[in-house]
């Protein structure tokens, strides 16, 4: 009876941690999407030129918009979301790995679900690492800085589909994988609780 009680307590603890980390990571990924689309739309929908307040000279709209974005204290928000997303995904991976270990050692069942959750969260954690800062532009992680967005907008046409793949589709795909991992984690919890005759 003590062993069953201990297993149930472990299930509750890791379930709470996984739920919290999933929420934090998801919110930060969505916030990064908001920054990208705000940057993109402010450039694409802008027309005409804007006067420079310092010199009074007319400057292109894109240059004015990018200058405003860089000075609007958005960089610290992006960096904060990046840090929370990366560390949240890593901690989520550790919690899932610990849960998998408990399932194997305690013979709780639901190994199929928690194993799938582990591998999905592993892929998410690996691909969220900003590899572009480590290995160069050939390999990119899903998180990005504000300067990366501004550079992409100024070095190529804003209609380039690579912008969408890099800054929107890629992170949203990882968010989907994380949601799938969370779903498998919930399935594991349900199986374990049923086996422990809690439900």
Shape call:
elongated
C-alpha Rg, in Å? 22 Å
Largest sheet: 2 strands, antiparallel
Low-confidence stretches: 44-59
Number of helical stretches of at least 4 residues: 6
**Helix amount, in percent?**
over 70%
Determine the structural class based on helices, strands and strand pairing. mainly alpha
* Average of the residue pLDDT scores: 79
SSE series: HEEHHHHH
Q: Give the DSSP E fraction (strand runs of 2 or more residues).
A: under 5%
Task: Give the arrangement of secondary structure elements.
Layout: H1 2-44, E1 49-51, E2 58-60, H2 61-71, H3 74-106, H4 111-128, H5 146-155, H6 161-195
Antiparallel strand pairs: 1-2
Describe the protein.
Helix 1 runs antiparallel to helix 6 (161-195) and helix 2 runs antiparallel to helix 5. It is elongated, with a radius of gyration of 22 Å. The chain is built from six helices and two strands. It has one domain (2-195). By secondary structure, the chain is mainly α. The chain has helices at residues 2-44, 61-71, 74-106, 111-128, 146-155, 161-195; strands at residues 49-51, 58-60. A hairpin with a 6-residue loop joins strand 1 (49-51) and strand 2 (58-60). The protein starts with a helix and ends with a helix. The protein has a two-stranded antiparallel ribbon.
